Records
---
Amino acid sequence: MASNKKPRLKDGALRRFLSVVLITLLGVVLLIFLLRTNPDSNLDQYSTDDDQSSNFSNFGKLNLPKQNDFSIFLEKRNLLPPRNLDLFPKLAKDHITIVLYVHNRPQYLQVVANSLSQVVGISETLLIVSHDGYFEEMNKIVEGIRYCQVKQIFAPYSPHVFPKSFPGVSPTDCKDKDDPIKKHCKGNPDQYGNHRSPKIVSLKHHWWWMMNTVWDGLKETRRHMGHILFIEEDHFIFPNAYRNLQILTALKPKKCPDCYAANLAPSDVNSKGEGWDSLVAERMGNVGYAFNRTVWRKIHKKAREFCFFDDYNWDITMWATVYPSFGRPVYTLRGPRTSAVHFGKCGLHQGQGEKVSCIDHGVANIQVEEIDKAGNINSEWGVNVYKHQAGYQAGFRGWGGWGDERDHQLCVEFANMYHFKNMSSPS
Ligand SMILES: *[C@@H]1O[C@H](CO)[C@@H](O)[C@H](O)[C@H]1NC(C)=O
Ligand SMILES: *[C@@H]1O[C@H](CO)[C@@H](O)[C@H](O)[C@H]1NC(C)=O
Ligand SMILES: *[C@@H]1O[C@H](CO)[C@@H](O)[C@H](O)[C@H]1NC(C)=O
């Protein structure tokens, strides 16, 4: 070791060094002072915003969990450029970005990836695959995609990435219905008395992290002004999905000013649509939904509602708290025939093998009729509005599973994550 060879600073050099340190310190203090007092600074944009999220704005002091090496590795990997830039160097000007969020069902993902390969117009856009956890088999499928630009992102704070500590399980955590005082364990039970389960909370965390990251974080999408379509690892996408969605998003402002989004599938996941010669406006569905940045800003402002509602399902949280808080009915516009099918529930229940489903040898048993192969929405159609549909709404207390303050905090930090890093970036 060369530790005894450390050169000693000569007096003059020491003085010069100290004055540089002093000047730097003064500069930093002055900068902080200016940023805090200048009313035009972009930081203040968030604190004077009329939204409640300003309540937990904390001037860059993010309180995210301490990352392990793997988490840091994933965060860096998220900065890699999309794949297939050689094949598809340019995105179409008015493209609708597609975000596919996945966990670990490779057999399903393969079906979805194959269905996307048949989608007319897919080569015009960017597909982002957002992973909850890191699984080689899942990566292989995504790496095999050659029909459009593809970018993978990995939730760096996924419970699946933290084997020994929060957001994963730590040895001192309470389990099930443990009494924190008697057991000397950590955690807050939900409204039904149950403690957090990392596997269960990971879905809502992933969704919220992904939304924040796609809209406000990623270089590729944070300035995207059009719509973004969100699909899941068990959504079969019809060949006409992209073209239909382009028509729907174009028709939306005229035909349905109350519509916040466009959907590929009916909100009733068992329905394939009515087959009418008419558009349909109904409550937001959770299969193939697309909205724009204006709507995202509205959702982001309701971060507290989202993060503190005691239900581990992101979609039920949206229906029961976020949408009702907009103060107006929240409709989505769709065609009369579905362009996406949720196949994950066909017989697959927790604990059962992957085989008990609509999938045989990796091929989904989903019939695509000739009429669903090309765009089949007529711009001249009127709109049928479903009013007062049944379903989760304001007043529902939630299914629980989301009572731990650490989960609330992490969720809130995801909403702050990209709002303090780059002071000059637009909101
Ligand atoms: C701000 O946060 C505090 C503490 O978390 C809470 O008591 C208060 O109600 C919040 N205010 C608003 C306007 O949300
Ligand atoms: C986004 O969609 C909403 C709801 O359809 C609409 O009111 C708004 O004008 C759209 N924003 C942009 C920038 O197109
Ligand atoms: C911050 O945002 C500005 C403009 O919005 C951009 O030019 C700059 O590259 C961004 N800096 C970083 C570090 O992302």
Note: Residues 69-349+367-416 form a domain with the Spore Coat Polysaccharide Biosynthesis Protein SpsA; Chain A fold (CATH 3.90.550.10).
---
Amino acid sequence: MGKTLLEIDEDLPGLGQFYCTPCARYFHDETTLSNHQLTKDHKRRLRTVSEEQYTQAEADLAAGKTREVLAPVNVLRRPVS
Ligand SMILES: [Zn+2]
């Protein structure tokens, strides 16, 4: 995770500057954040987050929807000889 400029928020730990996106948690400083990123909880969360990203096609399939594939119009309109 690269360094991103976060909005300073005095109500958050570390003024909201040390944020773990997958865990949605704020940390007091860079060291605490780095240590957190080595924990099992973080790695598990990271894996879960990466698995949660589906394409719309996969989501439809999971919901029992199938996509009807129609033949191109020009094939259907071929004149009968
Ligand atoms: Zn984390």
Note: The first strand starts at residue 18 and ends at 20.
